[in-house]
Amino acid sequence: xxxxxxxxxxxxxxxxxxxxxxxxxxxxxxxxxxxxxxxxxxxxxxxxxxxxxxxxxxxxxxxxxxxxxxxxxxxxxxxxxxxxxxxxxxxxxxxxxxxxxxxxxxxxxxxxxxxxxxxxxxxxxxxx
Length: 128
Prior knowledge:
Layout: H1 5-8, E1 18-22, E2 25-27, E3 35-36, E4 38-42, E5 45-50, H2 52-58, E6 63-67, E7 72-74, E8 90-93, E9 110-115, E10 118-120
Parallel strand pairs: 1-6, 2-7
Antiparallel strand pairs: 1-4, 2-3, 4-5, 7-8, 8-9, 9-10
């Protein structure tokens, strides 16, 4: 069962000090490590891409933690890479957009979008 939008979203345009998304399937775009299961964002940048345990260790009292419940996290553009130091532009979708790495379009639902560390919920904000 796919979690509903209300399970994952915060107020649109909110920018928590730090954001941890755990229990996900993270498509990194890095051929050396194509999949991870969590990301940690701070100040509009990706700080960590790794395991949920690793990301939870980085989380403090001011960190907003989102349990992705197995949803896919990927960059909004096919060629984008989710790596430490990169801008925090990502989205949670119910399945990979297209066939990962091949760019075939499909009807994946965007559940949550993050742009420069700011939570947005409008598909148009990502130019899709």
